[in-house]
Design a protein that fits this description.
single chain, mainly beta, 5% helix
Length: 290
């Protein structure tokens, strides 16, 4: 007996069509409201060149310009994930200076795997975040480890809190250190940026917080701040690229600027209050933010 499968196929297509008819669109209400403030001009002179070795990767996700006021120098640094090293160049001359080779295991092991990142606070205070282990290591200029912060262990007590009766567990962000998500250390507090890689039920500022503070004066105690904006509560955004977070700090006001892929604003925060800003006026730039 021959069975016809076409009606079943039609029904499946009809069900699929019905399930996809409701689409949430985040409209841009800022269209036409921007004015050109800066213009970029290409100039051949003054080009900065850094000669890479044969082991340097073409894609570099973690870069930092580090100023050492004690010797009046600026260093261009980046993480080479191929040979697990942090490279140092003289920014003024472009000359290669040194590289810190990161050990994988042993007493100085930091378990370097992609997507790890680093932050140079001083010549002998180099923080390295291991994504594989959720550990934040403090190294000297030789790559020797002398302090470890256990990121997961230090927020375990927060799971016992019941905030506003909405949810007992606050989901911590997946911390990343990269050029677009740098780490900061102000006084004795470390500031980190993270994100959610997938949907976990209700998205709000209570149980899905994005920014992390680590108080080194209080046994590296950890707390979380700032959630996704209202636009993320209007639908399931699925892919992690739509949930990626970028941020920077204004060194003058000491306020943080946070941006999101599906939102047309930039948000300014002191980690206690969040203000929506028109993104045309507040742009993250190295050393100066208007």
């Amino acid at each position: 007996m021959r069975v016809h499968r076409y009606p079943f196929f039609v029904v499946l297509n009809f069900v699929f069509f019905l399930s996809c008819t409701k689409v949430v669109v985040n409209e841009n209400d800022l269209k036409g409201k921007f004015k050109a403030t800066y213009t970029l001009e290409k100039k051949d002179e003054g080009r900065k060149t850094f000669v890479l070795d044969s082991e340097s990767t073409q894609s570099i996700r973690c870069v930092q310009l580090f100023e050492d006021a004690s010797v009046d120098s600026v260093y261009f640094t980046f993480l080479n994930t191929y040979n697990h090293s942090i490279y140092f160049y003289d920014f003024k001359t472009g000359d290669f200076l040194k590289k810190i080779e990161l050990e994988r295991e042993g007493p100085n092991g930091v378990y370097p795997y992609v997507p790890d990142g680093y932050y140079i606070h001083s010549y002998d205070s180099i923080y390295y975040y291991s994504h594989k282990t959720d550990l934040l290591f403090l190294l000297n200029h030789n790559g020797e480890k002398y302090h470890t912060i256990n990121y997961k262990a230090n927020y375990a007590h927060l799971n016992l809190l019941d905030l506003a009766g909405l949810r007992k567990n606050r989901i911590p962000p997946m911390v990343q250190l990269s050029t677009g998500k740098p780490m900061y250390k102000i006084d004795e507090t470390i500031y980190l940026c993270g994100e959610m890689t997938e949907e976990f039920g209700r998205v709000d500022s209570i149980n899905q917080l994005l920014l992390t503070t680590i108080d080194t004066r209080r046994n590296d105690s950890i707390d979380f701040h700032v959630g996704y904006p209202e636009s993320y509560r209007e639908g399931n955004w699925g892919e992690n690229y739509f949930r990626e977070v970028f941020w920077c700090m204004n060194p003058i006001t000491k306020l943080f600027l946070v941006s999101f892929p599906n939102d047309h604003y930039i948000y300014q925060t002191d980690l206690k209050q969040v203000k929506k800003k028109i993104c045309g006026k507040h742009v993250c730039r190295r050393y100066k933010i208007n």
